[in-house]
Amino acid sequence: MHIVILDYATLGYDLDLSGAEKFGTVTKYENSTKEEAAQRIKHADAIIVNKIKMTRDVLENASKLKIICETATGYDNIDIEYCKERGILVSNTPGYSSSCVAQVTVSMVCSLFTHLKEYRECVDSGRYTKNGVPNSLVPIYNELYGKTWGIIGYGNIGKAVGRVAEAFGCRVIVNKRTPEEGCVCVDLDTILKESDIISIHCPLTTQTKNMIDERAISLMKKDVVLVNVARGGVWDEEAIAKAVEDGRIGGIGCDVFTKEPFGTDHPFYRLLGKDNVCLTPHMAWGSFESRTRCFNIILSNIEAYLNGNPINIVNK
Prior knowledge:
Elements: E1 2-5, E2 25-28, H1 34-40, E3 46-49, H2 56-59, E4 67-70, H3 80-86, E5 89-91, H4 98-114, H5 116-124, H6 127-131, E6 148-152, H7 156-167, E7 171-175, H8 188-194, E8 197-200, H9 214-219, E9 225-228, H10 237-245, E10 251-254, E11 277-279, H11 288-306
Parallel strand pairs: 1-2, 1-3, 3-4, 4-5, 6-7, 6-8, 8-9, 9-10, 10-11
Helix pairs in contact: 4-7
């Protein structure tokens, strides 16, 4: 078996990828453009990929390709319909990053709600030392206790966030496709209207694309803290940026963008440095433990395929 890893840099340079060698020859590339990818997979039996678009024009000359192993839970970078046509299996890695994405989500909310950036800057700048007052209480901050935390998407990550929110004393309400027992399930408009904090954990689909738009923003509380650790496309980035600039949102945290990395023309570039904005470079999924779990799932997916019992297949 010939395995091609197209963008190992996205998994981190510290990760040991040698486990794939037990299945055959492995060719690794730090990163690949679409054009490079099309050439590099021509003779591949299996592909391991994270961010590169696996579209028809990239895949059509990979005549030996049997399986694509996505190193993420989401697989919107892969043309699933074309893979079905060709009989190419697509596997993903579910559940590996729930703990660390939940950790970053809660960290963003706590930082924005408590204004940690501003309070740390007060000390780091020397103002606290110079002002002679034992404590500083500007800007005013509020407790999470008693607040309503709305969760959009209630899979493994959403559930993990919900447990932490409840531990803080928040009222948790949930929007998900299929209501379930054990949580308060409401429609999206109720989430938007009632929540003090909203965190987004749903996949990017035709139904969720730009679901947080101008209309949605108009329903929110003016001081809402809004966090997106799902996909950049689930909200209208220009509308979000404008709402922050106009003071119609209390604060945002975001780890995902429609273009990664985003350029100087991206709406969020205008928000850099704002105290009520926490932008991170798509790192929420990537603790060392999480990346290790992710690659171990990839190895399990390949082994199961070779044994004739493929697992985690998303295009059956």
